[in-house]
Specification:
Number of strands: 9
Number of helices: 2
Helix content: under 10%
Number of domains: 2
Radius of gyration: 19 Å
Distance between the termini: 25 Å
CATH topology of the largest domain: Chitinase A, domain 3
Structural class: mainly beta
Bound molecules: zinc ion
CATH architecture of the largest domain: Roll
Strand content: 35-45%
Shape: elongated
Low-confidence stretches: none
Oligomer: single chain
Order of helices and strands: EEEHEEEEEEH
Length: 159
């Protein structure tokens, strides 16, 4: 089965129609199909598209950033947090010194008690992508081996 490298522009909206992200005005996204470079639900629904296609793709939360997991929400004491200065709802920081520590979001503050949510900020959100396919080509053997797109229209890196 031929795998493809797809170049596309997108605008991402939440169910209320609010724009969360867009590539408009910047570089398009380039990815190798089935390599986990974009969220699974979008990758799957763009299989077989042709260059020039404009389409709307709905991706349920479970196929995007996952369902919201209540077990990832916990309350801690303010003094336990590695944050100096003022703290407010919506602040995000890494929950530990390790650079791979999860990013947590402050969702509530009640005196000395702070509620943190370690879910991805888009967990539990159904996503709508308005997509314009810029280019589609067959992936090279090297790209398939590396598991990502290469070249002028790729992310430019090579090892
Ligand atoms: Zn590579």
């Amino acid at each position: 089965m031929t795998r493809h490298v797809v170049t596309f522009h997108y605008t991402l909206r939440d169910p209320s129609g609010r724009v969360l992200d867009t590539s408009a005005g910047g570089d398009p996204i380039v990815y190798l199909e089935g390599a986990g470079q974009i969220i699974d639900g979008l990758d799957e629904q763009l299989r077989g598209v042709a260059a020039g296609t404009k389409t709307r793709v709905q991706v349920p939360a479970a196929r995007a950033y996952g369902d919201h997991d209540p077990a990832q929400v916990q309350q801690v004491r303010r003094a336990q947090l590695p944050v100096d200065g003022e703290l407010k709802v919506g602040d995000q920081f890494q929950a530990g010194a390790d650079r791979f520590a999860p990013v947590v979001t402050v969702v509530a503050i009640d005196g000395d008690k702070v509620t943190l949510d370690a879910n991805h900020p888009l967990a539990g959100t159904d996503l709508t992508f308005d997509v314009e396919i810029v280019a589609v080509r067959a992936a090279t053997g090297e790209e398939i081996q590396h598991g990502h797109a290469h070249g002028r229209d790729g992310h430019g890196h090579c090892h």
